[in-house]
Amino acid sequence: MTRILIVEDDPDVATALRVLLTRAGYEVVAAADGREGLRRLFADGPDLMLLDIGLPGLDGWQVLERTRDMTDLPVLLLTARGAESDRVRGLRAGADDYLPKPFGNDELLARVEALLRRAAPARWAGAAHDDALRLVPERRAALWHGEEVRLSDIEYRLLQLLVRNRGRVVTTDQLLDQVWDDPQGIGRDRVKFAVLRLRRKLQQAAGEREWDPIEAVRGMGYRYRGEAGGL
């Protein structure tokens, strides 16, 4: 049965969503705050998340960021904020859809069905991306050929974005936009030097193999190609 995680602090809204989705044939798990939402995300492995932005403590933006560190699970944002800037922020942060409150039951179900129809099975960052690499989001680290590589926050986010787009070129502008929280004024050389540091750490961990999994594509950006022969 398809499982949906609801992260919503308003008990009335959470109950209404649970009843609606259960009647539609979904299995529902729920959390009332961001930290519990992340725990349920990891423990229950849902197929889709309904995420409220206005959560106490760890807010929805933070939950979304940490979710994207772990998985490409479909996320539908639910919020009382209907401003275009908030919608744009949510989509750029990795949400798959955005539904302002109040919303109709039929529209919510239609959006849920559409997201599930389009989504491939969610990949988790803790799973092996190939025979050589495993990301460790809770430690902001990577296991490369079984050797743990400790990464800075920027280096981890660079690697996470590249492996999520394995085999495809991620442009320098895309890296600036999605890896740095505030890309304004950050020169393109900053990207080059950060990638160089990341590549150096992975090469050191590889030892005698001397295989560089990150390919620089001249004039465009970078591509994660994994282990030799992995593409």
Automatic annotation (TrEMBL):
Protein name per UniProt: Response regulator transcription factor
Every Response regulatory domain range: 3-116
Modified residues (4-aspartylphosphate): 52
Gene3D superfamilies on file: 3.40.50.2300, 6.10.250.690, Winged helix-like DNA-binding domain superfamily/Winged helix DNA-binding domain
Domain OmpR/PhoB-type as annotated: residue spans: 124-226
Assigned keywords, A-Z: DNA-binding, Phosphoprotein, Transcription, Transcription regulation, Two-component regulatory system
Xref: Pfam families: Response_reg, Trans_reg_C
Lineage top rank: taxon: Bacteria
Signal peptide: none
Binding region for DNA: 124-226
